[in-house]
């Protein structure tokens, strides 16, 4: 590459552990989201479904403990890592970073809006794009500042949840507020509209409800998600800027701490939260217990996602060879994330196969495995021929204002004398 040029990262420059983690996160995201594809998002209670028994209950519990909340935080860590890698490459090339990064963020926002309005209301890309704009304020922060700021931002929401639990448990608190009944009634009406739109409605009716959901839930969703997403972005950026992701051997102690301290601590907090309330419900009889359970789960989730990072990076050589099968999926994670929404809404919604509300928990997990295995096979076939996933290719073209090469460039062979 010529002196001073700044181009998109090439396959040889990628940090494979990040691609493996993205592929792993894709599986976890689908495992977590599958319930949201087949049942209402409005008024949904957290935790383990009390109506399940046997294998279904076991799978539900395992998903809640090991997947729920852990993989969007893992994706957030990876987003922050990508930001730091992109900035480092711009600095090395001596090129301005902000214009390119802003185009990248605007492109993600457009993709997220299209996803939320046209495919699935459970989109997280819009929140990521908005948090990514705020990430610029920390572009020159030191590593310690990134980690401290990230923890403070994420824990600010957990702190508000804990404060809410204290208020709810006090005499005359939220639990005794008559407004709760009115809110619950309104939510039931909205839930019924969601079931009609997605379970039996046409594509136009489903899209109309997606727009309604987006408008009604965006303000509260942004206020809730932005600090947490931005906090995880900062922690991820710190992992790259510290040099840990590029040279894990030199930072083995850090990754051991993540794997064997953060991970188990997060698991313990999650289990304690389950013991307090196995199905936290903000409209139930015991709001205080629900809020305490949700607070502990919220704190445990990023610790477990950091534990997953540590375990993947520390995996022995034989383990790395097995995990590497996930890397092609990680290189086209955005395409596959959107594909999951396309496939699952077609399977469950009324304008597709119409299986809304009919698939049990065990069958859902089997479907997740089938979809993800098919995605892995597709990713391997696609990435063997092309440098980028199709959505990544369009996103990168918009980011750099030029069409990137799509096919692999065959290596040049020099003739030995």
Automatic annotation (TrEMBL):
InterPro entries: Bact_Transport_Assoc, DUF418. The chain crosses the membrane at residues 20-42, 62-86, 98-118, 124-141, 153-174, 217-241, 253-276, 296-315, 336-356, 362-383. It comes from the Bacteria. Keywords: Membrane, Transmembrane, Transmembrane helix. Pfam families: DUF418. Residues 239-401 form the DUF418 domain. PANTHER family: INNER MEMBRANE PROTEIN. This is DUF418 domain-containing protein.
């Amino acid at each position: 590459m010529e002196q001073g040029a700044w181009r998109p990262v090439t396959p040889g420059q990628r940090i494979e552990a990040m691609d493996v983690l993205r592929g792993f996160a894709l599986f976890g995201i689908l495992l977590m989201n599958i319930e949201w594809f087949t049942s209402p998002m409005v008024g949904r209670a957290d935790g383990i479904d009390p109506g399940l028994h046997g294998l279904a209950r076991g799978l539900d519990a395992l998903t809640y403990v090991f997947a729920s909340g852990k993989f969007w935080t893992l994706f957030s860590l990876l987003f922050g890592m990508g930001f730091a890698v992109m900035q480092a490459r711009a600095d090395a090339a001596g090129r301005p970073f902000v214009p390119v990064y802003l185009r990248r963020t605007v492109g993600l926002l457009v993709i997220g809006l299209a996803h939320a309005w046209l495919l699935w209301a459970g989109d997280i890309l819009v929140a990521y794009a908005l948090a990514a704009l705020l990430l610029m304020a920390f572009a020159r922060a030191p590593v310690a500042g990134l980690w401290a700021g990230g923890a403070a931002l994420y824990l600010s929401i957990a702190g508000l949840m804990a404060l809410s639990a204290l208020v709810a448990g006090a005499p005359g608190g939220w639990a005794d507020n008559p407004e709760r009944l009115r809110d619950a009634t309104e939510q039931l009406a909205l839930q019924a509209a969601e079931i009609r739109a997605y379970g039996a409605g046409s594509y136009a009716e489903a899209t109309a409800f997606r727009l309604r959901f987006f408008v009604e839930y965006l303000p509260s969703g942004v206020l809730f998600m932005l600090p947490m997403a931005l906090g995880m972005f900062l922690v991820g950026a710190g992992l790259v800027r510290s040099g840990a992701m590029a040279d894990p051997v030199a930072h083995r102690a850090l990754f051991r701490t993540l794997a064997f301290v953060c991970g188990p601590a997060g698991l313990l907090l999650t289990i304690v939260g389950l013991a307090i309330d196995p199905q936290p419900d903000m409209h139930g009889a015991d709001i205080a217990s629900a809020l305490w359970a949700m607070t502990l789960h919220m704190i445990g989730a990023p610790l477990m996602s950091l534990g997953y990072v540590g375990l993947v990076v520390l995996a022995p050589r034989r383990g790395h060879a097995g995990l590497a099968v996930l890397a092609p999926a990680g290189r086209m994670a955005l395409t596959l994330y959107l594909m999951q929404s396309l496939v699952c809404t077609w399977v469950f919604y009324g304008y597709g196969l119409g299986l809304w509300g009919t698939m049990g928990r065990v069958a859902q997990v089997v479907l997740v495995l089938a979809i993800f295995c098919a995605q892995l096979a597709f990713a391997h076939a696609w990435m063997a021929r092309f440098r980028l996933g199709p959505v990544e290719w369009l996103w990168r073209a918009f980011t750099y204002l030029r069409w990137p090469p799509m096919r692999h460039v065959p290596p040049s062979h020099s003739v030995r004398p």
